[in-house]
Predict the structure.
Amino acid sequence: MNALGNTSGIEWRQESAPVPYRAALAEQEARNTAIAEGRAREFIWLLEHPPVYTAGTSAPAAELLDARFEVVETGRGGRYTYHGPGQRVGYVLLDLSQRGRDVRRFVHALEQWVIATLGSFGVEAWAVPERIGIWTRDAGGAEAKIGAIGVRVRRWVTMHGFAVNLDPDLSHFGGIVPCGIAEYGVTSLARLGLAVGPEEWDGALLAHAEAFLAALSEAE
């Protein structure tokens, strides 16, 4: 575990070893309460998980096709998502009561943060309003998902965040309908021919952090 810095008073933490999903969820919940009560700083946590499927609040049972890994129900929005080695997860716990109380703006800023970071590696990516997640062109030219977005807000403090595919085993996504979208594939930076490790990704993400935070306070 490494501390990445103190951007705008936020605690950043970077994990080099996988963190079990249930343990990370419990820590997020505790930290959410502490932030809401003024006992802890805001928190951004970058990590990977052992293979796991997570079910959002809108996940129908029919979209769990093959429960080959542990399935964990979580309070975030959305449907089924896969997490595993080679996928970098960012948990973003910010106090929106101090940042405008605008959940839609928070989600948009989060999407743009991931898109800008992908751009650092020459990857053009975008968000699609009717399709949750971050999208790009796969090696064959078809549109494919490279990142997932899922958030929860409790007492105006955010939880969960995003996951970006650096070099996961893409076959593991076959056990679910990722985020309920069956007609599009899933891709990764490695599939696009880019070798990007966790530390390199985290550094690029941090380089765009101030723009992300500034976007939370911009007037609509």
Q: What stands out?
A: The chain has one domain: 2-216.
